[in-house]
Amino acid sequence: MKINKMYSYSLLIPAGLIYGLFFLYPTIMSFFFGFTRWNLTDWEWIGLENYIMFFEESSLMIGFKNTFIFAFLTAGLKVVLGLIFAVLLTAKLRTKRFIRSLVFFPVLVSTIAVGIAFSVLLHPSEGLVNTVLGLIGLNGPDWLGNPNLAIYSVAFVDVWKGVGIATVIFIAGMMSIPVDYYEAHQMDGGNKFNAFWHITLPLSRPAINAVIILALIGGLRTFDLVWAMTGGGPGFSSDLIASIIYKQYQAGFYGLSTAGNVLLFLMVAVIVFPIFKYLNRKEVDL
């Protein structure tokens, strides 16, 4: 028995080594280098100076505000739209397999490619979106050049790209619900809306919780789509915490950007972990 147990644990060693080498070690070293001024060949211990400088960053408050707007807006829309698509795509539709592929396709496309493509589509004078709006007599705004619209434009593109994975998770959750519940509900004279409200929605809560957590983590850490579409501009109007950190790294402030990454990691943990605990308490067993 003891030998079998040791053998079982030995199978975890390769995965444990990979996890320690590529996650634990870089994480620990990030915490350490956040207290230093470093480059590729040398480092100097400076204590909390990087963290103080990071909080003195002029665009930091804009970055925090945009990060929270982006994360919660995209997470909310992915949950709502993903749930709607999942309900439609689990119904008896002839073309549902094709529509499922269509909804999931944007997930497979490179984020940078999506950002560049939508930068062209949303161009104020030559983009397809404003051209179509012009045909019906509407003057389209400068979607990415207007400081009040830029972050929302990027957020809606992120929803377009990410709603497919939410839909797939919801479909998997709904298909795991026993058919007996719906048959019993129908025999009791219930309609489709009541079936959704009292059966589908409560029993899909694990899938809903998974989508909320994944979307929130992704939204709080987003960088590539914003950078591809606006570069944080115009000005600092669409900067997120991650793009501010990248700009510091570009400027050669490696210790400062490392401290920013540590703070971003802690911020994501502080926000997501309590939400995760709260949502898990609300789950309904099948």
From TrEMBL:
Identify one Gene Ontology CC term for this UniProt entry. plasma membrane
Alphabetical UniProt keywords: Cell membrane, Membrane, Transmembrane, Transmembrane helix, Transport
Q: Where is the ABC transmembrane type-1 domain?
A: 64-275
Q: Where are the transmembrane segments?
A: 12-35, 68-90, 102-122, 149-174, 195-219, 225-246, 253-276
Q: Which coarse location class applies to the principal site listed for this UniProt protein? A: membrane
Could you give a single Gene Ontology term from the biological process aspect?
transmembrane transport
* SUPFAM superfamilies linked: MetI-like (SSF161098)
How the protein sits in the membrane?
Answer: Multi-pass membrane protein
Its annotated compartments are:
Cell membrane
Top-rank taxon, per record: Bacteria
One Pfam annotation reads: BPD_transp_1
Q: Which InterPro entries does the entry mention?
A: ABC_transporter_permease, MetI-like, MetI-like_sf
Similarity annotation: Belongs to the binding-protein-dependent transport system permease family.
Protein name in the entry: Carbohydrate ABC transporter membrane protein 1 (CUT1 family)
| Source organism per UniProt | Saliterribacillus persicus
